[in-house]
Amino acid sequence: MFTRVKRVTVCGGGNAAHVVIPLLKEFGASVTLYTPFKNEKALFVAGAEKGGIELLTEDSKIIRGKPDVVTSDPVTAACADLVLMVLPAFAHGPTLEALSPHLPANVIIGAIPARSGYELQADYYLKKLPGEFIYYCGQTLPWACRIVEYGLKVKVLGLKENIGIAAVPNSVTADLAGWFSEAFQAKFEPMQNVLAVSLGNIGQIIHPGIMYGLLLKYEGNAWDKENIPLFYQGVTDEIALILESLSDEIITMTGMLMEKYSIALTGVKPLYKWLLDSYSNSIEDSSTLARAFSSNRSYRGLKIPVIEANDKYVPDFKSRYLTEDIPFGLLYSKAVAFMLCLETPVINKVIRQTEKWIGKTYLGANWTLSGPDIYEARIPQNYGINIINKLLQLNR
């Protein structure tokens, strides 16, 4: 069925959008770029007039391509066979809301990375519409990538060796993985269901966990540009222990779900295994989790998110590593564990500290999901799902 995919709408304007546009054009697809932001639209239009985007791959190959259409109009953007959101998770809901009334029947729509709970939002918007829809969730981006010149140049720093993906209905997942593998020159692997993608969201572990470990004892000092701490390569044995503990709590949860409810979730991997499976060709020393991070060539030189302050730099506590990976990541896992009556002390501790940094209160007394900002989180309870069986209905 994916041979019918000729028209692709890409939603987004960041690093990943710059990568997928040249790849899709080389693949032979017609590409519409949807961005509601006028400044982004103007920059992409200007770039297209200069010949489009130059993509430098990890192996130094150059691929060029430009979108056929750049639009801020959701009606135009919805005219597609497949819609790909390469957006921050907080933009998924507004994008689904804008596009869904105009989508043609049988459209295929999804996000890479989906983070956690995308299936809840997609089901909420798409089930209101007539016709059949396919939605999909990608576990992570295939690339570590950075824009060199907006609308014109982007560089791939590293390519993951496999990327999990799942769809609703499950029956199309294998074909969808094949299509993405060919289109994006990367290995997409079918996951058993969209719950596996949400619980297997690796960003919910890595980003808040490293931020927590690096900045828990931060005392307000500012750095010169050349002294900004490394992020992934700054993982110490102590920080690795935090990361492993977060991972262990999620793996315990998936084990309970598999045992009690007979749902397949083996695609949710422990962090250490995921890292080695994804970057085995880039990791120079896999002897410990800390060394696997610090010796990963794909992570080389990437620094902690910062903002400028008086010609120096301080941590950006409002970065997506927290504002995305807590409400669209760890809180989802916490919410599922809550339905299972499973204690998650390390997840609790990381959420409690990081919510202070971002100025939110998600957790109430006794670690309950009752803080005044919990409505912002993409968790099952906010979609009327309060028991596990109801959540699993999306995954059967």
Provide a descriptive summary of the structure in words.
The chain has 396 residues and is α/β, with parallel strands linked by helices. The protein folds into 2 domains: 2-191, Rossmann fold (3-Layer(aba) Sandwich), CATH 3.40.50.720; 199-395, N-(1-d-carboxylethyl)-l-norvaline Dehydrogenase, domain 2, CATH 1.10.1040. It has 15 helices and 14 strands. Helix 1 (15-27) links the parallel strand 1 (7-11) and strand 2 (30-34). Helix 8 packs across helix 13 (326-339) and helix 13 runs antiparallel to helix 14. The longest helix is centred in the middle third of the chain and has 25 residues, at 237-261. The model has no long low-confidence stretch (mean pLDDT 95).
Features:
15 helices; 396 residues; 2 domains; alpha/beta; globular
CATH architecture descriptor of the largest domain = Orthogonal Bundle
Between the first and last Cα atoms, what is the distance in angstroms? 22 Å
CATH evolutionary superfamily of the largest domain: N-(1-d-carboxylethyl)-l-norvaline Dehydrogenase, domain 2
Q: What name is given to the CATH topology of the largest domain?
A: N-(1-d-carboxylethyl)-l-norvaline Dehydrogenase, domain 2
Work out the radius of gyration.
Answer: 20 Å
Beta-strand percent range? 15-25%
Q: Pairing-aware structural class of the strands and helices?
A: alpha/beta
Quantity of strands, as a count: 14
Helix tally equals 15
The helical percent reads 25-40%
**Sheet having the most strands:** 8 strands, mixed
Number of individual domains: 2
Principal-axis shape equals globular
The order of strands across the largest sheet is 5-2-1-6-7-8-11-12
